[in-house]
Structure formats: C-alpha cells, structure tokens
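ok trying this again, last paste got cut off
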Amino acid sequence: MDAAVGFSTHSGWAVAITACVDDARHLRVADRRRVALIDDDLPRQAYHAAAELPAADARAMVKRVDASIVACAETALTELLASSGDVSVVAVGVVGGPREIPDVATVLASHARMHACEGEQYRRGIADAADALGLGTSRIDAAALTSRVTERLGWSPDRIDHELAAVRADLGPPWQKDHKAAALAALLALHP
C-alpha cells in the first residue's frame, strides 16, 4: 500500500506522520515521530545567529545551516523509509507553501523576514531531501489543508474531523494540531 510522510515543521525539528488511505478508504497512520532537522552544534535560527556577524560569515553560517537541514532531513526520511513496514513511502507532504528566500543581507534587514525565512529553510530542506531520495513532494499552506483534502479525496470537513479523531482514539496521545496537519499533508502528497 502506498503511503506518504507528512511534515509539520518547527525551528530545528518536525512532526513526521507516515499515512495512507486504507482499503476501506479510512485514514491510516503507519508511523508518527518527532525528527531532528539540524545538527546540535548549529543554531536553530540561522538568520538570528548571523545577524551580528560580518557579511561573509553570515552567509557562511546560513549555508552551513541549510546543508545541515537537508542532511538531517535525508537521514530522517531514510529511517522512515527503512521502518515503513507494510506500506511503501512514495511521496512527502510539507505543511507550508513555498516562499522565496532572498539574499542574506535582505533577510537580515527585517526581523519578520528573518523568522519567515528560517521557517522556509526547514520546509525547503525537507523538500530537497525528498527530491534527493526520489520522492515526490507536495507543499500546502496550513489554511488550505481541509479544503484540499475535500477537493482531492471527496471527504467532507466532518469526515476529515472523524478520520482524525479515529486515529487519535486508536493511537492515543500525542495527537495535536501538528500531527493532524502532517497527516493531511501526507494524504495530499498521495493525491497531488
């Protein structure tokens, strides 16, 4: 059975949910976990750490963080692929639509842009790692998850809520907003 891994990211980590639609057309979660997305010796917020550095050092810091995120995401995905059990992971879904990351100097000129670009670093790193492993990637804004699942799977918002509640009843905690969003992102990756 084909499955996808959905990710809901934070600074330095993400919730990863491996999910599919089973033969009875219900949401099935094959795996859930928290994954690290950056090496411990690097800052979780690259642009904040780079803000007081000389320009060349700031660019080098951001580049190191970007490389670490991709490497950690690739390691996490490789582990998820190896432990997928009776499902075959064929795609990746990431909560959060793609955003532009301008040059480092432009990012550092705006505190709000620093936060936005730091979030995008993690989402982009997961997508790059998935691409390196030959997995298709979908990115979707959190606000559009329910409407897209309704559109692509034909599930009403009530059905989506019921499916997510059934998983919570089956798996127990934790099953929070991030878990639900990552599960829906996984379903959307399977139905692009």
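PB: full thing came through this time. The chain has one domain: 2-190.
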